[in-house]
Amino acid sequence: MKAIKYFSFGLASMLAFSSCSDQFLQDKKNYDQVGAEVYNDYDGANGRLNDLYGWCLPTTAEMSWKYPSCGLADVASRSTEEYFGGMNNTSTSAISFIDPVADLSSDNSTSVSVPDYFMGTSNNIQEAVYGRIRNINDFIRGVETSSLTEAQKNTLLGQAYFFRAWCYYNLVKWYGGVPLVKEVLDPEEGNYTPRSTTKETINFILEDLQNSADLLEGETADGGWKDGSNYGRITSGTALALKGRVLLLWASPIFNRANDKSRWTAAYNAMKEDLSTINACGYGLYTSGNNVNGSDFASVFTQTGKTANREAVFFTLYNTTVILTGIDDAAKNNTWERMIRPDNTGGNGQVPSRMMLNLFPMSDGKIPAAANNYTKLKASDQVLDTDYPFMNRDPRFYRTFTFPGFRWAYNGDASIHNVHNPNDGQNYTYWGYVWYTSADDQGNVESGNSYGADNLGMESSSGTYSNSVLVRKKSDDLDLNGSALYTYNPSGWKSGAGPFYSAAPLIELRYAEVLLNLAEAACGAGDVSAALGYMNQVRQRAGVPDRTTADFVGDEQAACMSAILYERQIEFAYEGKRFDDMRRWMLFDGGAGQANLKSSWALTGWDGNTCTWLGFMPLNGQRREKIQYRVADKYGVGTTQWDGDPLLNGGGTRPDGVNLNSETLSTDLEALKTWYQENLAVKEQKGDGRDSQHNDLYIKFQPQYYLLGFNSGVQNQNKQLEQTIGWGDYNKGGAPGTFDPLAE
Question: Are 322 and 335 in contact (CB under 8 A)?
């Protein structure tokens, strides 16, 4: 890889670092523009390290080349069961991994060029992936050659090694092997680092993570950082938890086509050994001792502090500083709250697919028969009412979605926005039913001419307004957390920033994942009993019965792996994890078509197809629709005004909102269902696209998308960068790529 194009800017062009809410990220001095002498002073070196935190920590922005998905309806999550969309009909105006009519290309001159998750913004050293790696390498060199004490060096280097591994992990999961730049490269034309093999890249990441864990063990493996001001920093447990994720990636079918059991065994043995250190750092499942209808599961995301939330292993801290104009480095808000709250509270709303609503387990913890995506798992005896899917579900269902008639209290007041609702926030109930202004539109699945109750508004081009069901996962629910972690600022209403200025942490890796990663490794290694034990710890916290082998159909190991992937899909819904899991396990098509890219890429393990082996219905060829609740026909149609609700104007009344913390939740939901049946009608709306003749389009994830290539913009700046097999090589006139991410 040529360094000159995005290493040449050097330290002189770097920007001031971003800071988080924690004390260790508060200093606003610019430690980017430094000389070697800064590393001889611990405070100076620490300031430079804080800069690395500021640039490398995940954020709540939509997924891009620089940050993983956090669960919003971005290009990754829209490529899973969680959302709908990502099909452009006959348009080529947006990037999508699942569009059946617009294949991604390596040609950057088209509007559907493959996303660049490799280079980023080439003219800004922090905004380029390898620019960040360069800064980390500069930091490592500076600390190693400094006059600091050995203990000080270990503390600083342990954190830097983690972030270098984190940067490379976010490359290898997309591309396989990438150039491994281990030292600071001078901005010279001759500097070129070729792509390493995937195995070499994985091993380098694992080495950095082990170094991180070893160097930080003395400081953090006795309950975590002793100094509370260091809360939020990397620990030995953080490094080992990410190490487990990387080991799992290497053992997964995307890189392990023959199902080499030695990879699973190595991962399992290492992760078992590392678990004691992770635990010693103070991590564990969050429990309060008073779990009500999944309240412990919901509270994970709104607890902050070493003792308050043991589950957060790798996370980003935020603050509530409000900046309405200009840019101020002090403002570091978690934007999740404002993105998922309903429009009439100042939020944007995120709309789940009906497929995802149906996939969640019933209250017995088993998959509904109506979902049928996992045929090696015995279905629940409880029947899912797909028109009223909030009945008799896994407690996590209620903490993941909200329906009309559910309380969703918040600490604020949006009554000035004509919400036909006692809306002091503390009494807020979401009434997301809709009405139409034309009887013809009421039954038209493609019609968006609906108006949402309580000033939720007309359906927008983004589809976020008059939708009946919203995601509420990770929300700071006032009924759960009486001390909201956000400031509600009405002056920020619809300003782009929104009124919710939240300090809730963004958890990228939590202890539940540590357990489910370990469960998956155990299963792959053949220890089904241990796998069930780890998985059931997560289920017990969720409040659902344990899994046993009696739940399995057919091959026990395959069924157990299927159960683990299903558990991950539910536990981590809307946390940005599903797309990575689907790519790891090739769940779009089971690996069909890989041999067409290269004969040696064919799956020889997993019975030749992961979906068949797992008993999983491939996502390719399916559609995702959405569900809407509209005013019943007896009330007629309404107007396009906020007070034009035909239900309320026609003498209908609404019950008190269902409180998810109620001890009588089941009977409360029965009463709500009865109210629905008397006052609302169920309508399935078009979710995924249709063509110009109104024919349904179906999901199509191409075989080459599992291992991405580089677009021509990247290759133009890296003339010797070898292209991935399955993608056209811009530097060779569009000839087929030659780099094999599966070659060792």
Answer: no
Q: How confident is the model at residue 372 (pLDDT cuts 50, 70, 90)?
A: confident
CA–CA distance, 38 with 143 (Å, rounded to integer): 9
Residue 664 contacts by C-beta under 8 Å, 6 or more apart in sequence? none
In this predicted structure, what is the pLDDT of residue 328?
54
CA distance 638 to 527: 60
pLDDT of residue 336: 95
Helix (H) or strand (E) holding 239, with range, is helix 236-251
Q: According to the per-residue pLDDT averaged within each range, which of 58-62, 442-446, 515-519 is highest?
A: 515-519
pLDDT in the model for residue 280: 98
Q: Do 721 and 6 meet the contact criterion of CB atoms below 8 Å apart?
A: no
3-state DSSP of 373-442: CECCECCCCCCCCCCCCCCCECHHHHHHEECCCEECCCCCCCHHHCCCCCCCCCCCEECCCEEECCHHHH
Lookup: tokens for 458: 């007309």
The C-alpha atoms of residue 41 and residue 148 are separated, in whole angstroms, by 7
CA angle 9-14-19, nearest 5°?
155
- Cβ atoms of 476 and 485 within 8 Å: the answer is yes
Beta bridge pairs of residue 295:
none
* Spatial separation of the C-alpha atoms in residues 113 and 698, rounded to whole Å: 21
Say how far apart CA 410 and CA 428 lie, in whole Å.
7
Which among 568, 543, 563 is positioned nearest to 551, based on CA atoms? 563
Q: What are 187's two structure tokens?
A: 């901005």
- Distance CA(727)–CA(734), nearest Å, equals 8
Contact 50, 31 (CB under 8 A): yes
pLDDT computed for residue 163 by the predictor: 98
Q: How would residue 184 be classed by pLDDT, with cut points 50, 70 and 90?
A: confident
- The token pair at 138 is 């500069």
pTM, two decimal places: 0.93
Angle formed by the axes of helices 511-525 and 261-280, nearest 10°: 150
pLDDT at 585: 98
Instruction: Spell out where 93-234 has E strands.
Output: none
User: DSSP secondary-structure letter at 83?
Assistant: S
**With contact defined as beta carbons under 8 Å apart, do 703 and 593 qualify?**
yes
Strand (E) positions, 587-696? Answer: 626-631, 680-685
Residue 130, SS3 per DSSP: helix
Asked if 237 contacts 278 with a C-beta cutoff of 8 angstroms, the reply is yes
Q: What is the mean pLDDT of residues 103-128?
A: 83
Contacts of 714 (CB under 8 A, 6+ apart): 116, 118, 119, 721
Q: What is the CA radius of gyration of the chain?
A: 26
Q: Which amino acid is at 310?
A: R
Q: How many CA atoms lie less than 13 Å away from 655 in the CB half-sphere? A: 17
Give the number of other CB atoms < 10 A from CB of residue 692: 8
Match 């009124």 to its residue by tokens.
Answer: 499
pLDDT interval class at 34 (50, 70, 90): low
